[in-house]
Design a protein that fits this description.
2 domains, about 30% helix, binds NADP nicotinamide-adenine-dinucleotide phosphate, 6-stranded parallel β-sheet, 7-stranded mixed β-sheet, alpha/beta, about 325 residues
Length: about 325
């Protein structure tokens, strides 16, 4: 099979397409033939060697993917051969989803309804699970709340807007381009604001009267100002952060505000079971429609890694096999 390999940490140039033997599932494992893989920002941090978690070299990157069940190891139940599935994570750190096949544990494999194509399936895993966990497991969002998705045009942001709107939550979002703003509104946000425009936070405050929950994609830029937008008992969930920031803690005091860290990678098996049950329901009733922005062939994974770190997001970036 073709697979992208990383033999040393570094820039996008360390991503090399290679021929590897087809993997075989052991007992309790699932072999998935992948048609698309999701490219997440974290894949670039791991590739660069700057992330807390470093896989042993060489390795194939990628957490997310979609395809069909190719083979089932002994003892696997609940999945059918040739069934369409999306995956989040693989059985071994060295064998990720930027490949024509991957070995997964059964709890990393979920049904993909026919109405969702493989590129959309590859957009599901990390971004949608993150959006769900941030909104509902960390911030306890409820119908009638007002949520700001601060960075709503990307993979996690578009998912968060759709998930919140489907639960009767009023959503406003931000983006950095006109195309991004239109995309955010198309997902059901009542208003979209440009996070590169001066005074946009004042505009959000006057348009909403205050925010119950902020889903924050760029805490290193926004956290201090976010605190000024919150209603009493408001929460900021830190999803994305790329550096240090000074905040005035006094801004949390009068509103009794909370700053909540969140990592998908610390979700428990029960958290994950609930997340994927909710995503499955959203896919089945059509309220969840993963947004794919750009597709690259597997041979151009380097370009996908450059693109995922550029501004001007418009949904998910995937590579296709
Ligand atoms: P993405 O698709 O690249 O989207 C990035 C988003 O951030 C875009 O909407 C972008 O808008 C926006 N943004 C850029 N500058 C901003 C600013 N000044 N203020 C607010 N938003 C701004 O990335 P993603 O996959 O959605 O991931 C988003 C972040 O969450 C990344 O940092 C990622 O590493 C992190 N993440 C964390 C977890 C976790 O477990 N905590 C899980 C998944 C992802 P424009 O491009 O339109 O300017």
């Amino acid at each position: 099979m073709k697979a992208v390999r990383v033999r040393q940490f570094g820039g996008p140039e360390v991503l090399v397409l290679e021929d590897l033997p087809d993997p075989k599932p052991g007992p309790g494992e699932v072999l998935v033939r992948l048609h698309a893989a999701g490219v997440n920002p974290v894949d670039t941090y791991i590739r660069a060697g700057t992330y807390a978690r470093k896989p042993p070299l060489p390795y194939t990157p990628g957490e997310d993917g979609a395809g069909t069940v190719e083979a089932l190891g002994a003892g696997v139940t609940g999945l059918d051969l040739h069934q369409q599935v999306y995956v989040i994570g693989t059985a071994q750190e060295s064998g990720g989803t930027y490949a024509e096949m991957a070995i997964c544990r059964p709890d990393q494999v979920y049904p993909l309804p026919a109405r969702v194509n493989f590129a959309q399936g590859a957009a599901l895993g990390v971004p949608h699970a993150t959006a769900y966990r941030a909104l509902f497991q960390r911030a306890q969002a409820k119908a009638g709340d007002t949520v700001l998705v601060h960075g709503a045009s990307g993979a996690v942001g578009t998912a968060a807007v759709q998930l919140a709107v489907a639960r009767g939550i009023t959503v406003v979002g931000t983006a950095g381009t006109d195309a991004g703003l239109a995309l955010v509104r198309a997902q059901g946000a009542t208003r979209a604001f440009n996070h590169r425009a001066s005074g946009y936070l004042d505009d959000i405050k006057s348009a909403t009267g205050g925010i119950d929950i902020i889903i924050e994609m760029a805490a290193h830029l926004n956290l201090d100002q976010d605190l000024l937008l919150l209603k009493p008992f408001g929460r900021v969930v830190i999803v994305g952060n790329r550096g240090r920031i000074e905040i005035d803690p006094r801004r949390t005091m009068v509103p009794n505000a909370a700053i909540l860290g969140m990592s998908l990678f610390s979700a428990t098996p029960d958290d994950l079971r609930r997340i994927h049950a909710a995503l499955g329901a959203g896919l089945a009733d059509g309220t969840l429609r993963p947004v794919v922005g750009r597709e690259f062939p597997l041979a151009q994974t380097r370009d996908a890694h450059v693109a995922v770190m550029e501004s001007g997001a418009a949904g998910k970036i995937v590579v296709t096999m």
